[in-house]
Amino acid sequence: MLFLTNLYKWGIHYSDNQKEIKLEQIENDRIRKSWNYMYNNNGKEVKRLMEKAYINSEETENK
């Protein structure tokens, strides 16, 4: 009985984790698509700003 209870709890926990991972992937995909849209449909000045923001975001993650 204890084994079944723990298995059930693990199954619920696993399911919740998979759902959270899926939501994060959907959000990341939406961000990537919007970034590409902005980058491809704007001029050189916007592209330069976006590249600078991208580089700056990498530098802050490495600190």
What does this entry show, briefly?
The protein has 63 residues and is mainly α.
Could you give the topology of this structure?
Elements: H1 2-40, H2 44-62
Report the sheet with the most strands, covering strand number, pairing sense and barrel closure.
Answer: none
Instruction: Assign an overall shape.
Output: elongated
| Helix content percent band | over 70%
Kindly, what is the distance between the CA atoms of the first and last residues, rounded to a whole number of angstroms? 49 Å
Low-pLDDT runs of 5+ residues are none
Mean pLDDT: 93
Assembly state (oligomeric): single chain
Order of helices and strands: HH
Structure characterization notes:
It is a single chain. The chain is mostly helical and 63 residues long. 92% of the residues lie in helices and 0% in strands. It has 2 helices and no strands. It has helices at 2-40, 44-62. The longest helix is centred in the middle third of the chain and has 39 residues, at 2-40. The protein is elongated. It starts with a helix and ends with a helix. The mean pLDDT is 93.
